[in-house]
Write a structure and sequence with these properties.
2 copies of one chain form a homodimer.
Chain A lengths: L2 H16 L6 H8 L3 H7 L3 H23 L6 H18 L1 H11 L9 H20 L8 H21 L4 H19 L1
Chain A binds a DNA duplex (30 and 30 nucleotides) through helix 3.
Amino acid sequence: MDKRKQILDSALKLFVEYGFHGTPTSLIAKEAGVANGTLFHYFATKDALVIALYVDIKSRMALYLSEQTGTQKTYKDTIREQYIASVYWALENKLEFRFTEQFKTSPFFAQIAPKEIEESLKPFYDMLYAGISEKIIKPQPVDLLFTLISSQTFGLNQYLLSHQFSKTKQHQVISDTFEMLWAMIT
Amino acid sequence: MDKRKQILDSALKLFVEYGFHGTPTSLIAKEAGVANGTLFHYFATKDALVIALYVDIKSRMALYLSEQTGTQKTYKDTIREQYIASVYWALENKLEFRFTEQFKTSPFFAQIAPKEIEESLKPFYDMLYAGISEKIIKPQPVDLLFTLISSQTFGLNQYLLSHQFSKTKQHQVISDTFEMLWAMIT
DNA sequence: AATTTTACCGACTGTTTAGTCAGTCTGTAA
DNA sequence: TTACAGACTGACTAAACAGTCGGTAAAATT
């Protein structure tokens, strides 16, 4: 019954299927079961809708990650937990993953304030700093380390999404690749 | 004077700046210094232009990589050479890199025959197979290994493109990350 | 030299699209 | 019971767009 949400849901589905500009606002409204004007009641422009959708997805992802993250015994366990959580998020939210993938490489991404991005990355960076000072992690710039780690999870997500594995096999791949990642950064 | 090429060049530049659908064909023609109709003389539809551009870039990249690749002494040297060549290609062809990045995550990509993709990957896969049988590379599925390697170069490209490093520093980062990659896959 | 094919032009069009607007309906609070 | 606000509608419009077409001129083929 929440029309705003229905609009976002339909937009997500259609954007992934047809791309941002391949999807007319009229189709989004129709699919969401609302009038054309309603869409513009909630979102000033189509661009604003695209950006709102990205922000919404990012915050839901952040929530998921914070929920999944307990306090682990060792440093390695903490990193592993983060790694696994972010991979599972993508597996459980395929459309959302595909959308962010598309969004990040699009010109829209330039409209997201770099400050906000930095902000959301800080906890991660801090964790890496800690690992470096404890001489667990290789002494490389944290933003480089972060790029390498996130591009690895990114690639793994693409791999898992394009194959159909059993839960067991899937988990196997995830832990194998984590060990490989660990070998890379330590 | 080659109008087809001029159209492709302008399309590349504009697509990266405004996105596929954010760029009208009229603007591409104008920027290329040709008439509107000429664009449709060379490319039946706008979609055909997008795809032709992707194919063109891919073949130029393949050419570059084959030119850069000599026969190296050791297996590790061969892999390193490939790694370095593909990173430099992106650095020397930023627009092209950005475009393929955008293309691959777009719904257009579905129109590229999977058979052709497989074809172009085969030499790489064979090289990895060889590494596994010689017990140099970890015994993991080659498509997984390939995904991990290419997502790493991908991430590194993004990193290098978003920082301005001196040639020396740049090379430093590239060889450091190669060693990290090597640690991951062996 | 005659004929056909190809490269190229740019004005034009039918359609699609983002966004508007005048107004209805529902809840709520004075 | 009236007054107001905000959600919601869908017909509408102005602009933008992909693609067409009738035509010219040069190149290639006969």
